[in-house]
Write a structure and sequence with these properties.
- The chain is an alpha+beta fold.
- The chain is built from 15 helices and 22 strands.
- Helix 3 runs parallel beside helix 6.
- The protein starts with a helix and ends with a helix.
Length: about 550
């Protein structure tokens, strides 16, 4: 083994590789120190080097592996002339490169943990998230680079090897984002790195660490190992080893095919146009009010790889009508609709709109549905079900998306009704509803927000402020105090109108983002005057009108 390690370190490619690794570490450290110096909001920006530099590391390691393994094939004659008699083992050469990569991965992990610990106040869950990102984006993807390099080195044609190598680099590099944006191919099976690596990450999630994404990486590792085993073994071992890796590849593929919310899409360019593309060319639907009154909601949500919902709506009909109209976001697939007696109801669906055939003495309607909810999400990593979006059925036909302003309409019930929501999730959930002793969220409101992930909360002057834990808390608290104190000086009772309000920092998902103002909560970009001034003005004018 010493001979193989000596041969590896004497190879000129290794020196270039080590130089690049040192440069990447230097850049990560510079990013951490720069952001701390500038006292920036965005601690989340520190996650960018882990993914972006991980892409560069993958490419360099791939190039190094191809050159190293291919050049070793030419050493046999020189070794014979030099009198070297030991038998070369390509598996041992592969193992040596892997050990170098493993050492680098451990070093990067320790280095980042040290830098982040010194620069920021980071919660344990966020530190675990950072470490997992390193393991996946550098560790596991590095293994893929090594085995891919070995597979490409087996190609006898230099031209073919260069072509395949160029294709692989384009697939993993940010170039693919541009190609996918304009061509529109489904690249989910080759998304080794997140599509959003060049764009704004979600502040509540960071870079997503998903089982499906890891399954894709392991799938391609297994396919490369099948090729390598066929090359190494010339007997029955070839069949056995290849069958093992083939079985492993099938398992990874099945894991990937499980329906899930693809969080790697959040923040990429095409996600900004997701809703616009769906609504493009659709005829404008005239708003239709329901002929019944919504009396309350009983909701049970199960959050796993996607959202599964059972929503019971209590209604009171004012007149007899043949159809009951509801609006439910089109990305959710309805499984079943039934009444209070358990009888299945006949319904028709057209995009966001449901028409249910009415029956006598109908008091409760239960909707069972599931789906991804893109561009909104509910998954192991986090939940973002904002108010004003019909992720639960709302009576009547309502316009959902505003094509002109490229945002969702603010949709809420005409009057506050009782909500009871049970969320089956291992995460801590934040909502504008209060949680009772049984763990259910209850309250009488016009709309409901559910949020989880890396969330911090600050209570100030009777208001709740929810923001990403990846942002600097001291800086945010300073802005909260300055903004609230300034507008509390207004006359007309504005101070009283601020109490019991919830201010939520909208996740940066590059889709459906805008300020939205409700009776009990405000969705905004930042807790700064320029982002809240419109709402404060509305409150101030309303207070003056109330005094007249």
């Amino acid at each position: 083994m010493k001979n193989y390690l000596k041969q590896l370190f004497l190879h000129k490619v290794i020196y270039l590789f080590l130089f690049v690794c040192i440069f990447l570490l230097f850049q990560i450290g510079q990013t951490c120190l720069y952001i701390k110096k500038e006292n920036s909001y965005y601690i989340i920006d520190n996650l960018y080097p882990i993914v972006n530099y991980g892409i560069y590391y993958f490419i360099i390691l791939l190039l190094m592996s191809v050159q190293y393994f291919y050049s070793l094939c030419k050493y046999h004659m020189q070794e014979a002339l030099d009198g070297i008699s030991y038998k070369k083992s390509e598996k041992n050469q592969l193992f040596c490169v892997f050990m170098i990569h493993l050492a680098f991965t451990f070093f990067v992990t320790g280095y980042c943990v040290f830098m982040y610990s010194c620069c920021f106040k980071i919660a344990f869950s966020l530190m675990v998230h950072i470490i997992l990102n390193i393991i996946i984006n550098i560790g596991i993807c590095g293994v893929l680079a090594i085995v891919t390099g070995k597979s490409l080195s087996l190609l006898s044609s230099d031209f073919l090897r260069i072509i395949v190598l160029a294709i692989v680099i384009c697939i993993v590099s940010p170039i693919k984002n541009e190609i996918n944006y304009w061509v529109g191919f489904d690249t989910s099976m080759i998304e080794v790195f997140p599509e959003n690596s060049n764009f704004v990450a979600n502040g509540y999630l960071g870079y997503p660490v998903q089982i499906q994404r890891v399954a894709v990486i392991l799938f391609w590792i297994a396919l490369n190992l099948i090729i390598i085993e066929f090359y190494f073994n010339k007997n029955v071992k070839k069949i056995v080893y290849s069958a093992v890796w083939g079985f492993f590849a099938i398992i990874c593929l099945l894991v990937f095919l499980i329906p899930h919310t693809n969080l790697t899409n959040l923040g990429k360019k095409s996600s900004m146009l997701y809703s616009q593309t769906h609504y493009l060319g659709l005829l404008a639907l005239e708003k239709k009010e329901s002929g019944f009154v919504t009396k309350g909601y009983d909701i049970e949500l199960t959050i796993s790889n996607q959202i599964k919902a059972s929503v019971t709506v209590s209604i009171e009909r004012n007149r007899e009508e043949k159809e009951l109209l509801f609006t439910l976001y089109h990305d959710f697939s309805v499984t079943k609709i039934y009444d209070q007696s358990g009888n299945d109801l006949t319904y028709r669906r057209d995009g966001d709109y449901l028409s249910i055939d009415s029956t006598n003495d109908m008091k409760n309607i239960t909707f069972v549905y599931e789906g991804n909810g893109c561009p909104f999400y509910a998954e192991y990593a986090g939940i973002y079900l904002p108010p004003g979006v019909p992720y639960y059925p709302i009576a009547g036909f309502h316009k959902v998306y505003d094509e002109k302003n490229r945002c969702f309409y603010k949709m809420e019930l005409p009057e506050a009704v009782p909500f009871s929501i049970q969320v089956n999730s291992s995460q801590k959930i934040y909502s504008n509803l209060s949680m009772d002793d049984s763990g259910s969220f209850k309250g009488c409101v016009k709309e409901v927000m559910l949020l989880s992930g890396f969330v911090n909360e600050i209570d100030y002057e009777g208001c709740r402020f929810l923001f990403p834990a990846t942002y600097d808390e001291d800086r945010i608290l300073k802005d909260i105090k300055e903004t609230v104190n300034k507008f509390q000086d207004f006359k007309g009772g504005l101070k009283e109108s601020l109490t019991d309000k919830i201010f939520v920092w909208i996740p940066g998902i590059n889709a459906a983002d805008r300020e939205a103002y409700f009776d009990d909560l405000v969705m905004c970009y930042m807790f700064k005057e320029e982002y809240l001034v419109n709402w404060y003005k509305e409150q101030y004018i309303q207070c003056l009108n109330d005094l007249k």
